[in-house]
Design brief:
The complex is a heterodimer of chains A (435) and B (252).
Chain A lengths: L3 H7 L9 H16 L31 H9 L9 E6 L2 E6 L3 H5 L3 E4 H7 L1 H7 L10 H10 L2 E7 L9 E7 L4 E3 L1 E7 L4 E10 L6 E11 L4 E9 L4 E11 L4 E8 L4 E10 L5 E10 L4 E10 L5 E10 L4 E10 L6 E11 L5 E10 L4 E10 L3 H9 L4 H17 L5 H19 L1
Chain B lengths: L2 E11 L2 E12 L3 E5 L6 H9 L5 E9 L2 E2 L5 H7 L1 E4 L6 E5 H10 L10 H14 L10 E2 L5 H15 L3 E5 L7 H14 L5 E5 L3 H6 L4 E6 L2 E6 L2 H18 L4
Helix pairs in contact in B: 3-5, 5-6
The chains are: A alpha/beta (435), B alpha/beta (252).
The complex binds adenosine-5'-triphosphate and magnesium ion.
C-alpha cells in the first residue's frame, strides 16, 4: 500500500477547477507536512503524549461507499431530528447534502459542500478557507489536512440572520484503512445566530481509520454561535481534531465537545478573542477506557479587553486509559478586564488509569481575573455510601455519580434530544463496564 | 421479634473505641429519642447500623425484625428496612432529586417491573408540597448548594418516599428554622404508626415537643446511661450533661 504522504503527493485532492490560491495553500500544506518533524517525546507541546503510538502512514483516502453502505449510514445519521440542514459524508464522500430551506437561502444563508462553495463563492472561500490553524503543535498535521481535505461543509450566515435549528454534519469512516480530512467552516456575520453539530462516527467497531479534521469558526461582532462536536470513532481510529474560534466584539460562542471514541485522539481547541466584550465557552467531556488516549490541548487568547473565556474539560477514566489536558490562557497587554477561566476535572474510576494536567497562564495585562485549576480524584466514598444507604446498589450508584459528573457538561447541550442521545452513547460505552 | 435490636455493640475507629457495649431495642410502633454530648458516638451508631465500612465492629449484633444486618452492604441494609437521615447529607452534583429517589425506588422493585412515571411524580409532588418544598427542587442536583434546612427537608422527603420500616434520624432538627421544624415534624408524625420504628437523635428537647417520643435515652461515652419518658428531655435540657455525668456515668 502507498504511504499516506506518497498518496497525497500522487493524488492531490484537487479537482480540475481548483483556483490558484487554493493550489498554493495545498502545496504549502504539503510542504509543511513533509518538512516539519514528527512530534517528539521531548516536545513541550506533546508532553505526556504517546507520540510513539502515532502511526499515520498506513492510511490512504479511499473510494466512495457502495449504495447499501451509504444508505445504511445515512439511516444512522439521526442524532438530531429537528435541523436546518444535514450533510453526511462517508470516507470523505458526500452521500447526502440536505440543503437549507428556501426561506433561509432567500436571506442569504449558505450551507454548501466545500467543493460547491469553491465554485459558487470563490471570494468568500479565498478569505476563509484553510486560513486558520491551531498553534498547539499540530502544524504538520494541519499541513496534511490542507493538502488533502475534500469533504466538509461551509455555513455562512449573513448579518442579522438567525437560524434556530442546527446544521448537522456527519463524518463517517467505513473502508478499512481509510484516511479522512473533514472540514467544517462556519462564518457568522455581525449579529447572526447559528448552531452546528459535527458528528464523527465509524461504521463498525473494526474498520481502522485516520482522521485529521479541522474546524474554523468565525463569529463577527455580536454573532452567536454554538458548535457541538460528538466524537464516537471506533477504537481503531487515530484522530486529530484541530479547531479554532475567532470571536469579534460582543460575540457569544459556545464550543462543546463530547469525546467517546478513538484509539488515540488529539483534540486541539483554540479561541482567539479579537473584539471587546466577547464571551466564549469551551466545554468538553471525555470518557476514556481500555488503552484509549485523549490528548487535549487548549489555548484561550485574549487580544481585546472586557471579554470572557470560560473553559471546562471533564474526563472520566477507566482501565488503562490516559488523558492529557494542557491548557494555556494568554492575555495580551491591552486586554484589560479580562475574565479567563480554565477548569479541568478528572475522575479516575480505576487506579490504572492516568490523567495528566498542565494548566498554564501568560498574562501581560494587569487588570484581569484569571483562574486555572485541575483536579484529579476518585469517586467519593461517602457519597457512594449515601447513595447506597437509599438502597441503590454499588454499581448503579457509581453509574449515577459518573453521569452526575458528566451532567454539568451535558446539561449545556441546549437540546433535550441531543442531550439524551449523548447520554445514550455514553451509556453504551459504560454499561458493560460498570453494570 | 418485631424490633430494631442492638445488643452489646462494640465499635472502634482507628484503634479508638467509640461504642462500648451499646444496647438498645426499638419495637415497631415506637419512637425513641437518643440524646448525648458531642462526640459520644451517636452518629457512629447510626452509620455502623447503615453499613458504613470505615468502622470496625469488634462484637455485638444488630438485627431488624430478627434479621442480622451487621456486615451487610449499605444497599442490602436499606432494603432490609433501615433508613438513615444523615446529620450531614452529602452533595451529589449532576444527580437530580427526582432521578435519585426514582433510582432508589427502582432498586426495590422486583426484576422486570418499572416505575410508573406519572404516579411517581404525583406522589413526589404531594410529599414535597407537604414538606413545603418548591417543586422546582426535583430538577436540582441532590443537596448541591442547598441550605442546611433544605438538605434536612430533602432527607425527610426521601424517607417518606422510601417507606422504611425503621427510621434513624440524625440531628434532623439542626439547621431547621422554627417553621421548618414544625413542617418536618408533621411529616414525621404522619409516618408514625404500628408498622414503623424511629430513632431520633437530637440535642434539643424542642424537636421532641413536636415529635413526642415514647422513650428518651441518654448516651454518654459510647453507651446508654439512662432512659426515661419524654419528660426526661426537659430534665436534661434544664440540668445539662454535667448532671448526667455525675448521676449516671459512674456506672461505667
Ligand atoms: N471517621 C472517623 N475518624 C476518626 N474519628 C472518628 C471518625 N468518626 C467519628 N470519629 C470519632 O468518634 C467519636 C464519636 O463521633 P460521633 O460523630 O459518633 O459523635 P456524635 O455523638 O454524633 O457527636 P455530635 O453530637 O457532635 O454529632 C468522636 O470522638 C469522633 O471524633
Ligand atoms: Mg453526630
Amino acid at each position: 500500500m502507498n504511504t499516506l504522504s506518497e498518496n497525497t503527493m500522487n493524488n492531490p485532492a484537487k479537482t480540475a477547477a481548483e483556483p490558484g490560491w487554493l493550489a498554493e495553500r495545498r502545496a504549502e500544506g504539503l510542504a509543511q507536512f513533509k518538512t516539519l518533524p514528527a512530534p517528539a517525546p521531548n516536545d513541550e507541546l506533546w508532553r505526556f503524549a504517546s507520540v510513539g503510538r502515532l502511526k499515520i502512514d498506513d492510511y490512504a483516502p479511499t473510494g466512495a461507499p457502495d449504495a447499501a453502505t451509504a444508505e445504511a449510514l445515512l439511516e444512522r445519521s439521526n442524532l438530531v431530528s429537528e435541523r436546518a440542514g444535514r450533510s453526511v459524508y462517508v470516507d470523505d464522500h458526500a452521500v447526502c447534502f440536505e440543503g437549507i430551506s428556501e426561506a433561509l437561502k432567500a436571506q442569504g444563508v449558505l450551507y454548501l459542500p466545500i467543493e460547491a462553495a469553491l465554485q459558487s463563492h470563490p471570494e468568500l472561500m479565498e478569505r476563509y478557507f484553510l486560513k486558520e490553524s491551531t498553534e498547539l503543535g499540530s502544524a504538520k498535521f494541519f499541513g496534511l489536512h490542507a493538502a488533502s481535505t475534500r469533504a466538509g461543509s461551509v455555513l455562512y450566515v449573513p448579518k442579522g440572520v438567525e437560524i434556530e435549528q442546527p446544521l448537522v454534519n456527519y463524518y463517517w469512516t467505513s473502508t478499512q484503512g481509510t484516511a479522512v480530512f473533514p472540514h467544517t467552516l462556519i462564518i457568522a456575520e455581525a449579529n447572526a445566530k447559528a448552531s452546528v453539530v459535527d458528528v464523527f462516527f465509524s461504521e463498525t467497531k473494526e474498520n481502522e481509520a485516520l482522521n485529521i479534521a479541522v474546524s474554523n469558526l468565525h463569529a463577527a461582532d455580536g454573532a452567536q454561535v454554538f458548535r457541538k462536536v460528538v466524537q464516537d470513532w471506533n477504537e481503531q481510529t487515530t484522530s486529530f481534531q484541530l479547531d479554532t474560534t475567532i470571536a469579534g466584539r460582543d460575540a457569544r460562542v459556545k464550543n462543546l465537545a463530547v469525546n467517546i471514541g478513538a484509539e488515540r485522539a488529539r483534540y486541539e481547541n483554540q479561541t482567539r478573542i479579537e473584539g471587546p466584550g466577547a464571551n466564549v465557552k469551551m466545554y468538553s467531556l471525555t470518557v476514556a477506557e481500555e488503552k484509549q488516549e485523549f490528548d487535549q490541548r487548549t489555548f484561550q487568547t485574549h487580544n481585546a479587553p472586557n471579554a470572557v473565556s470560560d473553559l471546562l474539560y471533564k474526563n472520566a477514566l477507566l482501565d488503562n486509559s490516559r488523558t492529557i489536558f494542557s491548557g494555556l490562557i494568554k492575555v495580551a497587554e491591552g486586554a484589560q478586564q479580562t475574565d479567563a477561566y480554565q477548569t479541568n476535572r478528572n475522575l479516575l474510576l480505576d487506579p490504572t488509569a492516568e490523567a495528566n494536567a498542565l494548566p498554564g497562564l501568560e498574562i501581560l495585562a494587569n487588570d484581569v481575573r484569571c483562574s486555572h485549576g485541575a483536579t484529579t480524584g476518585n469517586l467519593d466514598a461517602d457519597e457512594l455510601f449515601y447513595m447506597m444507604q437509599r438502597g441503590i446498589p454499588r454499581r448503579a450508584a457509581m453509574q449515577l455519580m459518573v453521569f452526575g459528573f458528566f451532567e454539568e457538561v451535558i446539561e449545556k447541550v441546549d437540546s433535550e434530544e441531543l442531550a439524551e442521545n449523548l447520554r445514550q452513547l455514553i451509556h453504551k460505552k459504560f454499561d458493560a463496564k460498570i453494570a | 421479634m418485631n424490633a430494631l435490636e442492638i445488643k452489646n455493640l462494640n465499635v472502634s475507629i482507628e484503634g479508638q473505641s467509640i461504642l462500648k457495649d451499646f444496647s438498645l431495642t426499638i419495637p415497631k410502633g415506637e419512637v425513641h429519642a437518643l440524646m448525648g454530648p458531642n462526640g459520644t458516638g451517636k452518629s457512629t451508631l447510626a452509620k455502623v447500623m447503615a453499613g458504613h465500612e470505615d468502622y470496625q465492629v469488634e462484637s455485638g449484633t444488630v438485627t431488624l425484625d430478627g434479621e442480622n444486618i451487621l456486615g451487610e452492604e449499605p444497599d442490602v441494609i436499606a432494603h432490609a428496612g433501615l433508613f438513615l437521615a444523615f446529620q450531614y447529607p452529602l452533595e451529589i452534583p449532576g444527580v437530580s432529586i427526582a432521578n435519585f429517589i426514582r433510582a432508589a425506588r427502582a432498586a426495590r422493585l422486583p426484576n422486570g417491573e418499572t416505575i410508573n412515571a406519572v404516579e411517581y411524580y404525583k406522589e413526589l409532588y404531594e410529599k414535597m408540597d407537604a414538606l413545603k418544598m418548591d417543586r422546582k427542587f426535583t430538577a436540582r442536583s441532590l443537596n448541591d448548594g442547598f441550605s442546611g434546612g433544605e438538605k434536612k427537608r430533602c432527607e425527610i422527603l426521601q424517607m417518606s418516599m422510601l417507606d422504611p420500616a425503621y427510621c434513624v434520624m440524625d440531628e434532623t432538627d439542626s439547621g431547621l428554622d422554627i417553621d421548618a421544624l414544625k413542617t418536618v415534624s408533621e411529616g414525621v408524625n404522619l409516618m408514625r404508626g404500628p408498622e414503623r420504628g424511629f430513632l431520633v437523635i437530637t440535642h434539643y428537647q424542642r424537636l421532641l415537643d413536636y415529635i413526642v417520643p415514647d422513650v428518651v435515652h441518654v448516651m454518654f461515652d459510647g453507651r446508654i446511661v439512662h432512659s426515661g419518658p419524654a419528660e426526661l428531655a426537659h430534665e436534661l435540657e434544664a440540668k445539662g450533661y454535667d448532671w448526667v455525668k455525675e448521676s449516671f456515668a459512674t456506672t461505667a
